[in-house]
Amino acid sequence: ENSFTVAIDGPAAAGKGTIGRAVAAHFGFAHLDTGLLYRAVGRRVLAGEEAVAAARALEPSDMAEPEALRTAAIAGAASEVAVIPEVRAALVEFQRAFARRAGGAVLDGRDIGTVICPEAEVKLFVTASAEVRAERRCRELQAAGHATDLATVLDEVRARDARDAGRSTAPMRAAEDAVLLDTSEMSVEAAVAAAIGVVSAAR
Ligand code: C5P
Which residues form the Cytidylate kinase domain (predicted)? Predict the structure, then answer.
């Protein structure tokens, strides 16, 4: 059976996850939030493991409770382990196998269209201004019961963006053939509809 891959990249809290989940549900594709892999490695490192060994030891159970991985501390640790080439290399095959699965797959992350799936049938680069993204992330964190404020989240978002875009291995950037989607002034519904339109046109 043929595979069909949708690659969604972009900075933190731009809407990749929401769009990825909605596109996957619409077309009946599987969805992988690849940030969870790096977060799971980050959590192991915070618990005392060495980063490369942690990446090689990763198991599905590490990603079993995604909500537990969505803290600011784990996000920071994730973006620190994500600069290590051996950590990234240890996660490549799992992601590529997921992308190749029959019936279609959506992967969201930072390097899906550029490194993991350069042959993806659809590539989207989802962005929004740092201020809008920080507001969204702040609301999510507060709704999940984490005590934080907008200035702190904006600082964290900017630090993570700089590390993700500035690293030498698989830096966050739009693939040349990616469709850019700036969600700063779009509702969730409008952003999802735009993404579904791009995928529909490619099928
Ligand atoms: O997407 P999310 O915010 O969960 O990702 C956490 C961190 O994992 C990112 O800041 C980035 O450093 C790293 N990451 C990556 N490549 C991916 C997905 C996430 O480097 N494909």
Answer: 6-197
For ligand 1, atom 3, the nearest C-alpha belongs to 12
Query: Per the structure block, which two tokens stand in for 12?
Result: 């933190």
Q: Whose CA is nearest to atom 10 of ligand 1?
A: 79
14 pocket-lining for ligand 1 (C-beta < 6 Å): no
Instruction: Give the ipTM of the model, two decimals please.
Output: 0.99
Tens digit of pLDDT for each residue in 24-83? 999 999 999 999 999 999 999 999 999 999 999 999 999 999 999 999 999 999 999 999
- What is the pTM (predicted TM-score) of this model? 0.96
Residue 112: half-sphere exposure toward Cβ, Cα within 13 Å: 35
Q: Which residue has the tokens 């972009």?
A: 10
Distance 1 CA to ligand 1 centre (A): 30
